[in-house]
Amino acid sequence: MVPSSMIRKRIDIGAIMLVLFGLIAGLGAEEITLLRPNLPPAETRTLSFPPGQCTGNLYLEPESGPGWDPEHVTLSVAWEYLSAAQGDVPVPEGRNVQLLVYLALGPRESARLHAQNPWKHQLTVADRVRKDPENLSGLAKLDPNDLFRLSVCSAMYRRTGTDPRIFEPIRHLTGLRILSLNETGVTDKGLEHLRALRSLRALEFRESSITSRGLEVLKDLPALEYLDLRMEVTDAGLKHIGQHPNLRWLRIRTGKIWGPGLAELANMSRLERLCIWGTSPISDRHIKYLEGLAQLKSLTLWGSACNTLTDASLASIGELKNLEELHFIRTSPRFTVAGVARLNRLKNLKKVDFAQVWSGPRGVHYGDEVVRQLAALPNLECIKGISYLSAEGMKTLMVFRNLKCLGIALKDREQGYYGPTGVSYLAGLGSLEELRITGDDSLSDADLACLEPLSRLRDLLISGQNVTDRGLASIGKLKQLESLHLGCPVTPSGLNQLNGLSNLNYLKVSPRGNSGVRDSGDELMLDLSGLKKMKDMNLSGLSLQDSDLAFLKCLPLLENLMIQPDSLTGAALRHLRALPELNR
């Protein structure tokens, strides 16, 4: 038996290695009120699992909520690890609990995974110290309301034909609110066990064995408000979905949808957010079937599946009179400026994210023209994904007096533009809270000085090869900043000018070129000790010395840290000891 002290030592070393090599994860997400966490009192309750078999891992919901991401229409935030689910486990009373179960693969499945993906087999099967359960019998002793969220998955891609009886223990968890089934191989018959989950609010599928007939179970889940189908839905399946009276959020994957089934979604009077995503192409015909969704408030079109869309799709989207948000993610549709004009009928539109470069034929760049068309919607609060803006386009932005969020890229010499950036016009947008601006060789320190009047700015991303340490002095005057991402040539001593940003909780520094390298004559240590609210810090692009980490002891809330170990010695680790919240 391995001594417990050695186990603890190995865990500590592992944690340090994660910090040094930067294996961190964090994704900010806009909170919604679909589900709210409870604040944790001091009392505990006990969850009972088999003592001789680990059923999975237990997690606690963060105080920020379960992680709703309205733009992507998904759950995205990692929950806080609590312990292994084995024996009697005390959990804080009033905190929502998630159980994550990895189902063990059979011998044939394991051999198939080894043949398909040896690296994944090594990581998820061969190197596993703990044996995964073969079924869900470990749920048997739980009370109906013990779990808030249950996630069941396996390592096998497109697993099929799992015995339906494996899922029977789920049926008595009648207080369950969120259920995720990921590559479990569940079949239509296995889904029958979900009918008893009358309190279920959110359901996620990533399965290959479920057919349209299996989706009939949805009608017996009256509380369901969120459905994520990472499977190839058909028009027949969409008809079952369209009969659900209470769904508010829906995320579906492309693949086998011809189109008419999308029209069935118009029957869902409460549907607010729809995301269509994938790699299997959809066409203008598919989007036309959405014209009847008069109740829709947010539409997200995501992935290469949408690359073939044209202005005709924008015309159909223009029929959604109540639409407030329009998001394009990782896609490059064939839109033109004329198509953007079809959105002018959306008088309720508040957010638009085009997420692709507006480049026309023969090097024609549409940035300024796109902004000119959007000017017909002066009540827009968020504009993202517009590139190739000159001073003319920046001046047009002045009409958006309610603008809170802006994401743009400036025109520069590569596009044959040698004029002013027009960044000075942003000083007149006093409502701005989030700004992401990329300038390559056009953005300068003088431009950053123009941002100083933006007293409400909370989130800032700056990327430009001509921004230097001098520009950081201007950023240091934005006292309300909570999140800052710098993609520019800065040095450790230059960053000290940010020390007065007492509200900053996220900082990422991605120096460009030879930046981040300390000048031989620079003896100033990095000192960010004034960032008392800092939780997530990424300094991996900087060349740091051991002494540069001394300030870390002054950041009591720091949870995630990414640094480059190249120029550090073991002595640097002593600065990590006084960080009680550090977990990555």
Outline the structure in words.
The protein has 584 residues and is an alpha/beta fold. It has 14 helices and 24 strands. It has a 20-stranded mixed beta sheet. Strands 1-6 form a two-stranded antiparallel ribbon. The protein has a two-stranded antiparallel sheet with strand order 3-4.
Find the count of extended strands (DSSP E, 2+ residues). Answer: 24
Helix content percent band: 10-25%
Q: Quick one: biggest sheet?
A: 20 strands, mixed
Radius of gyration: 26 Å
The rough form would be described as: globular
Gap between N and C termini, in Å? 28 Å
Low-pLDDT sequence parts: 1-40
Tally the helices: 14
Mean pLDDT over all positions:
88
Task: Give the strand content.
Answer: 15-25%
Q: Helices and strands: which structural class?
A: alpha/beta
Summarize the structure.
With 584 residues, the protein is α/β, with parallel strands linked by helices.
Features:
single chain, about 575 residues, alpha/beta, two-stranded antiparallel sheet, 24 strands, disordered N terminus
Strand and helix map with partners:
Blueprint: H1 4-21, E1 44-48, E2 57-60, E3 68-69, E4 74-75, E5 80-84, E6 88-92, E7 97-102, H2 107-116, H3 118-126, E8 149-153, E9 178-182, H4 188-191, E10 202-206, E11 226-234, H5 235-242, E12 249-256, H6 260-263, E13 273-277, H7 284-288, E14 298-302, H8 311-317, E15 325-329, H9 337-340, E16 351-353, H10 367-374, E17 382-389, H11 391-396, E18 405-410, E19 434-440, H12 445-449, E20 459-464, H13 469-475, E21 483-487, H14 492-495, E22 506-509, E23 536-538, E24 560-562
